[in-house]
């Protein structure tokens, strides 16, 4: 569909997605805000999808999109990869059940694979989401160290629970000094206790981070960090090496949140690129091959805090037992066999031949192509990321942390994203791009062509605004 000059991209989107709008009106009657997760919403309303295959989505109006959201990066093989589908069906059909509710062999098999691939992982516990994984990692840190507080970095997301739902996207006029940020709640309903027990750190600023950690070392159980902030702003090598050394010296555990970077920046995660062994690692997304999953891995001596051997658990009906002797971690669906079958099949494909490297090369090709198009039309831009994920930032200034990102032209990027939605390129506005094995040269060229059409419309709009002025 050709874009009409001077027409607002939001109106174009509304014209294309009338059934989505109707379905969204129905959804609002039965779900708060019409969605089951706030992250799924964007103005004027989210596009309702009907089908998917490979690298493509189709909405309820019949519009087709090249998908770069990929379930926020979870689908590294694309939608409906036959080996993943077959593995899940085979598991359910040949084993006679969807879930055992007991230990099973796939739990052991996946754990062995993770221990082999991830430098900091000696033992593994499964969860049902990345959020649950970081929650367990933090509980392990509290139990192991006996300390009551944690530290996280400004702009980093570790899940939707109270202890870490702080200073992810804080207004800068409330966030405190750049070298000493304060805890700003990102949700209603967060008790002030968590603001007092979660220390906020400045990402990629080792000197300021060191000052804060040294002053609070007696209180801090752990520092939790996304080694690649939001999946696209990497830590500098010197910062990450310095953070590892510093936490070891101060007796503070280092937790890598690799939920986004798991099998995305490297098969061994960001820790394999930086050459660092964190004390604990949270994994998710790609690990489940499109199903809900999470995992925590780490040093045996720390993970062993969760072992029930010789200890009493919360469900033991013995009033004389000391329940605090064991760290409670449970979940009926932890290590779900269908999920692990999908995850193992995904990992098999990624390790086959040069499949992972192929996705990385495709990603690089797209990044260079998009930069070239936008720069040709004199739109300031850079792509940031590692491996198979990146984001476009509308500025040529260096981006090393959350505050740098606020200086980029976010409104221009948002306008671009809305034009792209009308041209069949899908990601949630302002979100990062994730690629898959299903993205071929055809999809890359379609995307570059769409960017060129969108860039022209941005220039037309800019010219129109200048004429009005």
TrEMBL record:
Cofactor: pyridoxal 5'-phosphate
SUPFAM superfamilies: PLP-dependent transferases
InterPro entries assigned: Aminotrans_3 (IPR005814), PyrdxlP-dep_Trfase (IPR015424), PyrdxlP-dep_Trfase_major (IPR015421), PyrdxlP-dep_Trfase_small (IPR015422)
The name this protein goes by in its record: Glutamate-1-semialdehyde 2,1-aminomutase
Organism: Caldalkalibacillus uzonensis
Superkingdom of origin organism: Bacteria
Gene Ontology molecular function terms on file: glutamate-1-semialdehyde 2,1-aminomutase activity
Keywords from the named record: Isomerase, Pyridoxal phosphate
């Amino acid at each position: 569909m050709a874009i009409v000059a001077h027409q607002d991209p939001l109106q174009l989107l509304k014209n294309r997605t009338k059934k989505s709008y109707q379905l969204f009106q129905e959804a609002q009657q039965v779900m708060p805000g019409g969605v089951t997760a706030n992250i799924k919403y964007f103005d004027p309303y989210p596009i309702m999808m009907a089908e998917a295959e490979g690298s493509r989505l189709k909405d309820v109006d019949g519009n087709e999109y090249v998908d770069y959201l990929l379930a926020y990066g979870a689908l590294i093989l694309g939608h409906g990869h036959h080996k993943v589908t077959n593995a899940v069906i085979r598991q359910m059909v040949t084993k006679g059940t969807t879930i055992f509710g007991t230990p099973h062999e796939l739990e052991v098999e996946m754990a062995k694979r993770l221990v082999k691939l991830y430098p900091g992982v000696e033992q593994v516990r499964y969860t049902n989401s990345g959020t649950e994984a970081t929650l367990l990692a933090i509980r392990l840190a509290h139990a192991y160290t006996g300390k009551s507080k944690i530290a996280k970095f400004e702009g980093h997301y570790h899940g939707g629970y109270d202890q870490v739902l702080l200073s992810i996207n804080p207004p800068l006029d409330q966030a405190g000094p750049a070298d000493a940020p304060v805890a700003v709640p990102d949700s209603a309903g967060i008790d002030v206790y968590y603001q007092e027990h979660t220390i906020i750190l400045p990402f990629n600023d080792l000197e300021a981070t060191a000052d804060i950690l040294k002053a609070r070392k007696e209180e801090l159980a752990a520092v939790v960090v996304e080694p690649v902030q939001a999946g696209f702003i990497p830590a500098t090598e010197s910062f990450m090496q310095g953070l590892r050394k510093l936490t070891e010296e101060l007796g503070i555990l280092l937790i890598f949140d690799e939920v986004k970077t798991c099998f995305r920046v490297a098969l061994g995660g960001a820790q394999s690129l930086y050459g660092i062994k964190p004390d604990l690692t949270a994994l998710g997304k790609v690990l489940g091959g499109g199903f809900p999953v999470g995992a925590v891995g780490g040093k045996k001596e720390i993970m062993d805090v969760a072992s029930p051997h010789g200890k009493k658990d919360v469900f033991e009906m013995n009033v004389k037992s000391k329940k605090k002797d064991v760290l409670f971690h449970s979940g009926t669906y932890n290590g779900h066999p269908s999920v692990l079958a999908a995850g193992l099949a995904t990992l098999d494909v990624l390790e086959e031949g040069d499949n992972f490297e192929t996705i990385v090369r495709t990603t690089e090709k797209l990044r260079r192509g998009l930069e070239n198009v936008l720069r040709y039309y004199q739109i300031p831009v850079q792509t940031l990321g590692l491996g198979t994920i990146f984001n476009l930032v509308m500025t040529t200034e260096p981006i090393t942390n959350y505050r740098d990102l606020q200086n980029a032209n976010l409104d221009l990027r948002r306008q671009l994203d809305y034009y792209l939605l009308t041209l069949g390129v899908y990601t949630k506005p302002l979100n990062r791009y994730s690629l898959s094995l299903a993205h071929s040269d055809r999809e890359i060229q379609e995307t570059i062509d769409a960017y060129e059409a969108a860039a022209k419309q941005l220039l037309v709009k800019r010219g129109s605004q200048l004429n009005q002025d």
